[in-house]
Amino acid sequence: MKAVELHEKESWSKAIKRAEGEKVKDDPKLLKKTIKKKIIKKKKSEKVWKERIKSVNKSMAERQQKRTENIQARIDAKKNKKKNKRRK
């Protein structure tokens, strides 16, 4: 009884909205298609984000490696300079 009344009320509200020129989005095929599109878009976005994180981490590691090499080169240069001063 209550379900029938609810269904009838819903039908009337949809009919009124259609009469007013408003679009009623109740087609199951289109709703499924929309949901599928959203899921695919979300997965694609997630994949792009993972790639971005991966590239950022890679660039950070490269920069850190370059930094340590430069620091080591500076230390070696100081040692060589001290050795050369001792020889003279």
From TrEMBL:
InterPro entries recorded: Rrp14/SURF6_C, SURF6
Organism: Rhizophagus irregularis (strain DAOM 197198w) (Glomus intraradices)
A biological-process GO annotation: ribosomal small subunit biogenesis
Molecular function via GO: DNA binding; RNA binding
Domain Ribosomal RNA-processing protein 14/surfeit locus protein 6 C-terminal: 2-83
Broad class of where this protein is predominantly found: nucleus
Stated name of the protein: Ribosomal RNA-processing protein 14/surfeit locus protein 6 C-terminal domain-containing protein
Segments of skewed composition (Basic and acidic residues): 58-69
Gene Ontology CC entries for this record: nucleolus
Residue segments, region Disordered: 58-88
Keyword Transcription: no
Record carries keyword Nucleus: yes
Source organism, top-level taxon: Eukaryota
Localization per Swiss-Prot or TrEMBL: Nucleus
Alphabetized UniProt keyword annotations: Nucleus
Family: Belongs to the SURF6 family.
Coiled-coil portions: none
Compositional bias (Basic residues): 79-88
